[in-house]
Amino acid sequence: MSTKPASERATPWALVTPALLWTLCFFVLPFAAMALTSVTAKDGSFTLSNYAQFFENPSYWRAMVNSLQVTAIVTVVSVLLAYPLAWILAEQVPERFQRLALMLAVLPFWTSYVVRSYSWLLVLAQNGVVNRVLTGSGLFADPVQLANTRLATVIGFVHFFVMLLTLTIFANLKQLSPSYRKAAADLGAGPVRTFIHVILPLTLPGIVVGAFLTFVLAIGDYITPQILGGNNELLMPQLIMMQIGRRGDFPLASALAIILMAVVTVAYLASARWLKIERA
Amino acid sequence: MTNNLRSALKRGMRVAAAASTLAMLAGTSPLSAQELNALIWCDHADPALLQPFEEANGVKVNVKEFEGTGAGFAIVDQSQPGDWDVMVIDSIDVPRGVEKGLFEPLPEDKLPFADLFPEVKMDNKTVVNGKRYAITEKFGYNTISFNKTKVDPADMDTLSSLTGDKYKGRLAIYDYYLPVIGMAALAIGKKTADLTEADLPAIKEELLKMKANAKLVGEVTASQTALATGEVDILVGGGEWVTAGLAKENPALDFSIPKEGGVLWSQSLAMFKDSKNKDLALKFIQYVLSPEGQARLATSSCYWGMPSNKKAALTDNEKKTLRFDEQPAFLARAQAYPAPNADLDKKMQDMWTEMLQAQ
What we know:
heterodimer; A: MetI-like fold; 75% helix; B: alpha/beta; D-Maltodextrin-Binding Protein, domain 2; two-stranded antiparallel ribbon; 15 helices; 13 strands; 38% helix; globular; signal (chain B); Sperm_putr-bd (chain B); transport (chain B); polyamine binding (chain B)
């Protein structure tokens, strides 16, 4: 039997109630409504046909495969680019300039996401900067198709998510005590060995948190593939939007959205053991 | 073509029907008799069109843009009866609205039916059980838009140029399934009004050939930009709605109605049965169909199109840009917008999805 007074026992609940209510109103209830819609036929009866359509239609499957491929590429490339950037910011840039360097690194965040995507379309276009450099330098005789391709979608995503990952990894690197490196050096480890066996494992949570956020945000993004991909292939968010915008088929759109959420859940479970921020 | 037309310029406005209902409650619900609530496409959002009506009648027109008839009906389904007064709708979809019991018959004697181009009255769609439920306000063609300095205009007189090797990698396809499926049907000698499920395999084959030649499949802004910036030289599914608005800046852009024909699109205005402002709704429809309203609608900043009223007060330059005088010949060669039933429509959309996914 608890010896705490009732008012003290109630305090934690009072503190978390706003958050619980928020989650209930803006996640649990909408999710329940979406789940219900996904299993409701036009006549109001129960049906699983919307889920069956996804598994039976190769074009729908293809959209999921495309989404997973693009998201995986974006996540890996973003991590590979962000880690060195975060390392340079944390280790090589003098302390007094770090804030400025970090601000410059995240400058792209300050512009509209849509504007940034359209800007990339112009940069990658046939008459864009990249093709002018490629043809002007003699590397290619004719312009290369960069815009309206999967590559363009990946570039647009990576540009955005490298910044996000840089922030999470930078924060992780800054939290690392210098004692770890000193201890490794005392034990005879060189810089490379120290990095592989000490620094990298300790910054893994930052990498995984950033990678998970990248995965979640990229797999659910509609704008970038729609603007930069040229509709030469469909990703899941585009397929979902087609059901809403063209068919007014909310049950199928709901089913597809829930399937996408299931994939995100699997990704979460796969990375859950690293998804904890602890001060090193 | 028209569904994506309005959506593209308002990409950020893609919201779920539930959100639209919230928006309505927040600010666009009919609070007084001095407000007209209109479900519209983007060409009706142009202040140059709305302001003269608002000022002349001392009213406020609240507009809500929507994407596709299905989404428009979804908004209505989630609204209260009487929330909306008028709706812009694809002429071919008017029977769907009538079937749902949404629309009020229009008084023919109070609207300028005699002044409309006869070919676009669309009586077979706008008249149901002897009652007229909508009036065509604007029309045009889904055909071939091109840059005449980059391609041989003579090649644009036949749809077969779209699938040959000469223009490989120089095409964009307008991302709306019905008109482009109609064009593919025309290319293989099918009448767009008679399409059945049996025609789909051959149409799909034609679509895949077009896709193989295409650099992108884009909604209005993307495909229009691609043509205007020289990213592509030909837009499959384009027409005056693409080139007319850009004529001043880029006179090299033109459109053709190939020998196989083009697909006629038309949009109509309908009044809601449950409207609480039927007099005002009728006034609005009368205004849009008036010569002045027609000229403003035809040259809307969102997209241009032919006014359905022959007496539209367009300037000579505007008429020239719209090729007003060539309309009789164009209309003679144009074929109807495909109007599949629900089952065939689903199959067509699935076919379109397969085309998009094809590598």
